[in-house]
Amino acid sequence: MNIIGWRCATCGAELPIGTVFPWRCPNSSSADRHHVLRAVGATSPIADVVDDLNPFVAFDAGLAWAAFADAHGMDRAARAALVRDLDAQVERVAGTGFRVTPFARSAELSDALAFDRGGGVWVKDDTGNVAGSQKARHLFTILLHLRAAELLGLAPWASAAQRPRLAISSCGNAAIAASTLAAAVGWPIDVFVPPWAGQAVVVRLHALGAHVQVCPRRPADPPGDPCIHRFREAVAAGAVPFGVQGSENALCLDGGRTLGWEILAAAAAQGVHLDRVFVQVGGGAFAACMGAALQSVFPPPALVAVQAAGCAPLAGAWGRARALPGGPLTAAQHWAECMHVWGSEGEPEPTSVADGILDDETYDWISIVDGLVATGGDVVVAPEAAMVEAHAVLAASTGIDATATGTAGLAGVIALRTEIGDGERIAIVASGITRH
Predict the structure, then answer these.
(1) Taking all residues of the chain, what is their mean pLDDT, rounded to a whole number?
(2) CA geometry: angle at 231 spanning 226 and 233, to 5°?
(3) Residue 435 has pLDDT above 70, yes or no
(4) Which pLDDT does position 183 carry in this prediction?
């Protein structure tokens, strides 16, 4: 297996790959959350890829959950059987299982943005993924780890009836993805949502059997998202962190990499070497995974992290990290200096049509910074007009039914278009269907 263990980016604490439930750094605490575990080892499975439509079977060699299972004696055939069993359960609830999603150059979109025939925009259409977005990819590796632990007799509960509750803080695609997976395996889940969560989303969560808890800001709350505060309280009381913040559960940064590997494999099959990959950033897990995956080829395409002008904490952190005496790769040791919660310096309330990326803190910023440095990438803050235009032009050019959040990567392309060569090969990911 490629992955051999876990190491904290901040304090250097290490855990062996066979560790059961390696959710957080052992030195992370309620007083110091500035830690994040990351997989150690050769994280590229490209050379060991299996020809299979299920990405969790195809890229087994590069996944941390699989290395954990392997360390306890579960061979590749048994792991594939577990993936297929869970996938079948998911498909019964979601109407689709995990499959490699389409990736191709859009001639219409490329023409609309005035690219040359040799360049243009390649679109990864992830709206057909489980629950309509890439979020389920992050969560499925957590579920695989949990089920592997149960099957191997390593879980501290004796039966499904004694399972701890799952918990997630989200108001959109991640909540729906988590609740879909929980419903598929009959695992109870608590979803912590803000008071302004969309009614359609809340209705869908209830339909999936989730216990929805609305989280208004309390007078005694510290800075930051009150949903995260309530989520952390639930985890402290014994719930499993089943969300998409790597600092809360390192396994969420495992499965998300499959999308990046798929892009690289598809591009290679098409004889294309990409120049840049634009990724929308809210909490940051998606961009963190993409940055890690892009390093599987040399030279890697540049990761471009896109934030909305109405909420851009990563942009500020990236600027402060680059100014550090030791450079941006020392940012983990300067977490509080670099990453400021949006609003703590007088910024207005977060706002954008891309409301799914309005996280007031980019939780996985350390991993994004590493990806930016390794790929020669950058952060772009897209004005609201670009967010609106991206949503309209993607639908008109491709017919893809994605939300404004799911087209925010394209907003970054639009914002930087005058700085992008007409012959450059650009990739974006469309994720998050408008209807569930």
Answers:
(1) 94
(2) 95
(3) no
(4) 98
Assigned token pair, 47: 């050379």
Helices 64-71/135-151 angle, 10° precision: 10
How far apart CA 389 and CA 27 sit, in angstroms, is 44
In this prediction the pTM is 0.94
Q: What is the pLDDT of residue 432?
A: 83
Bigger pLDDT: 349 vs 18? 18
Q: In 151-163, which positions are buried (b, 16+ CB within 10 angstroms) versus exposed (e)?
A: ebeebeeeeeeeb
Instruction: State residue 343's pLDDT score.
Output: 87
Average pLDDT over residues 224-240: 93
Q: Which of 78, 234, 201, 86 is nearest to 146 (CA)?
A: 86
pLDDT at 173: 86
CA 426/CA 408 separation, integer angstroms: 14
Task: Judge whether residue 171 has pLDDT over 90.
Answer: no
The set of residues, in sequence order, having a beta carbon less than 8 Å from that of 100 and lying 6+ positions away, is: 53, 54, 55, 58, 262
Q: Which residues contact 62 (CB under 8 A, 6 or more apart)?
A: 2, 3, 43, 44, 45, 48, 257, 261
What SS3 string covers the chain? CCEEEEEECCCCCEEECCCCCCCCCCCCECCECCCCEEEEECCCCHHHCCCCCCHHHHCHHHCHHHHHHHHCCCCHHHHHHHHHHHHHHHHHHHCCCCCCCCEEECHHHHHHCCCCCCCEEEEEECCCCHHHCCHHHHHHHHHHHHHHHHHCCCCCCCCHHHCCCEEEECCCHHHHHHHHHHHHHCCCEEEEECCCCCHHHHHHHHHCCCEEEECCCCCCCCCCCHHHHHHHHHHHCCCEECCCCCCCCCCHHHHCHHHHHHHHHHHHHCCCCCCEEEEECCCCHHHHHHHHHHCCCCCCCEEEEEEECCECHHHHHHHHHHCCCCCHHHHHHHHHHHCCCCCCCCCCCCCCCCHHHCCCCCCCHHHHHHHHHHHCCEEEEECHHHHHHHHHHHHHHHCCCECCCCCHHHHHHHHHHHHCCCCCEEEEEECCECCC
How many other β-carbons are positioned within 10 Å of the β-carbon of residue 336? 8
